[in-house]
Write a structure and sequence with these properties.
By secondary structure, the protein is mainly alpha-helical. It has one domain. It has seven helices and no strands. Helix 2 packs antiparallel against helix 3, helix 2 runs parallel beside helix 7 and helix 4 runs parallel beside helix 7. The longest helix is centred in the C-terminal third of the chain and has 66 residues. The chain is rod-shaped, with a radius of gyration of 29 Å. The chain starts with a helix and ends with a helix.
């Protein structure tokens, strides 16, 4: 099987371990792009939670009716969660407000952690990719000894030094991926917690008003 001229020239110009280094460097840029996209998504969620506090304050001061009005100014995931509870609290949709909001919170939690598994996978695999490049480089160095019929450090030093670059790059990319993975997971976990706190308070106010209304009706 013959390779295309471009690939053939690439393999002739660079050793396999150097091609792996270029691949890992390109993967590093891809991981950074994923992290930036996730950070933007998390920023939008944080902004949504800031506006969602107005709904809780409205429910605390004016009841469910005021909370429904305040919900009109909320955008993003918080609106979806709060609307699920308020629609059922006002009777627009049949169902239990607590279960509906809990279900939407699970969806938000899954969406916040989308694609972060790529970072975790890269953090686990990249050291092995670098190690594979090093092994190939060392094998090539010993092959050069066999072909030249000479030994010594001068023969293998260049090949081994190039091979070790692959391991260093693999470890560097893995560290980058792990750090980004932990940062994104920490931020996402904090946002999920804040959303849960706001949802719990809104549910408490909804249940209190519904209980008070039921008591007045029974009386």
């Amino acid at each position: 099987m013959t390779l295309p001229p471009v690939l053939q020239s690439a393999f002739e110009a660079f050793s396999l371990e150097m091609l792996l280094v270029f691949l890992m460097a390109a993967s590093s840029l891809f991981l950074v792009a994923i992290a930036l996209e996730r950070l933007l998504a998390l920023f939008l969620v944080r902004r949504s939670l800031v506006s969602a506090r107005k709904v809780v304050l409205a429910a605390r001061n004016g009841g469910i009716a005021q909370a429904v009005q305040a919900l009109g100014t909320v955008r993003g995931v918080a609106r979806t969660v709060f609307a699920a509870g308020l629609d059922r609290a006002t009777g627009q949709v049949k169902g239990n407000p607590a279960k509906a909001m809990a279900r939407e919170q699970k969806r938000v939690g899954g969406a916040l952690r989308a694609r972060t598994w790529i970072l975790g996978t890269a953090g686990a695999l990249m050291p092995f990719v670098g190690l594979f490049g090093t092994v190939v480089g060392v094998m090539n160095a010993f092959q050069a000894i066999g072909e030249s019929g000479q030994g010594g450090f001068a023969i293998v030093s260049v090949g081994i030094s190039q091979a070790l670059i692959a391991t260093a790059v693999g470890i560097a990319v893995a560290l980058e991926a792990v750090v980004l993975f932990n940062i994104l997971n920490t931020i996402a976990g904090g946002l999920v917690r804040d959303l849960a706190i706001l949802s719990d308070e809104l549910l408490e106010l909804i249940e209190h008003e519904r209980g008070s209304h039921a008591g007045r009706t029974a009386g």
